[in-house]
Amino acid sequence: MSKRKSLGYKKSKNKPKRSEKSYGKQNKSRNNERKGKSQRSKNAVTAEVTCSGLTNEGKGIAEWKGKQLEVPLLLPGEKAEVNVFQKGSLVNAELKRVITSAEERVDPPCPYYYECGGCQLQHMSNQAQSRFKQETVDTLMKPFVKPEPIMTMDHPYDYRNKNHTTFGLNHKREVIGGLYGPHTHEIIPIDKCLIHDPKADEIAGTLKDYMKNTKMQPYNEDTGRGFLRHVLIKVGKVSGEIMVVLVAASSEFKGKKNFVKTLRKAHPEITTMLLNVNKRDTSIVLGNQEDVLFGKGTITDTLCGLKFEISAKSFYQINPVQTEKLYGKAIEMAGLTGKETVIDAYCGIGTIGLVASQKARKVIGVEMNKDAVKDAIRNSKRNGVKNARFYQGDAGEFMVEMAERGDKADVVIMDPPRSGSDEAFLSSVVKLKPKRIVYVSCNPETQVRDLKYLVKNGYEVEGIQPVDMFPQTYHVESVAKLVLKN
Ligand SMILES: C[S@@+](CC[C@H](N)C(=O)[O-])C[C@H]1O[C@@H](n2cnc3c(N)ncnc32)[C@H](O)[C@@H]1O
To answer: Is the CB of 369 inside a 6 Å radius of any atom of ligand 1?
Structure first.
């Protein structure tokens, strides 16, 4: 992970906004199940440090005995007491008490913030979060061009259209539902998450109550007993359609009819329900077996003026408000005139490609996930698009075949997963010689690696646009425009 020394934050002016704030208490778990952590606290050394900058994950950087500490929740310019844990060459640190507070520090609006770990930046003002993300992208993209100002979100809450709740039992054997704590499979009970769709959290709450009042048991990862592992809820933010996916450890669903009836009565806005069976001992949420309990098994939503059908297992951008800005910029960077052949690589349900098809001669989409490709084909028909084709397969292999056949493409739009693309894909793009490449990424660190490859092989980065798709978290989206030199 790359780190930065200074982020140009204004240092606090000896006027602590909120000094002597203790973080030890908040860091302790509510349900006393974090024994590992309290054991660790016994072996901690307390040190006073000053924060000099932030890592790309938003952790404060501080020096201690010649070592670089990465301290979650610490901000540049702050003086603080930290607990340091050393095991062999590994050094971890946690914030104990802020002595001098930075101007950017705010009280996190979420009561679960210090335990949950789903968000990492709620202790920073929204402006400071934007500055942090801008500087992350600016620093990473220094070898290329100065990025544009980040596209921020006016209301940086309630934005997620997908929420995922895990169920379990607490030490009193009561049903709890919430999110896993950071780096653990310990469930932090949460009723309402500030970045989730509020309706989705209400439905998860109803489900928890249902379990309390019936024999439906949460699945226990240690004993392998119980039924319900998670619930995944997808919301069409424009259409209002809602999908509820129960992820269970068994396909034997006793009381299925009663369950569907109860949930629909409480939430008539649910338009479809599915049972997904995941019997594997895995941290992957969804299994392969899927049964529709009610409705059509998909939801539909509107994005950029087009209608998209979305399956349970298909990827769909989680922040539609910002996605419209992101896609708008990506299409602008593609410079389409109506004559181009465009490749939409890692196309998901075909969203970018179908938006691009309105300004291109032809669009070819490729995507690994079978359900997403089916959605893309359906979405093409649903929107009356005649000039787009979607194929299922590995994007790298697909591009290699295109290059070997000597196919032509004018523009490649690529939007790989967090791990970025691979050499098979990139080397074939270089052989195809598209005039422009638009690289959309949710991980600028892997994007930089891939941009370097493309730049070494004949391309020039002409523009970079950061977009805040994930407010309150350290994640940032970045879209880059590359042009073929000569
Ligand atoms: C970040 S998503 C982008 C999807 C789409 N462009 C969008 O904006 O909704 C990345 C997509 O790449 C797909 N994917 C992952 N690895 C792949 C591979 N090797 N080849 C093709 N598609 C892949 C995933 O299934 C996912 O749909």
So the answer is: yes
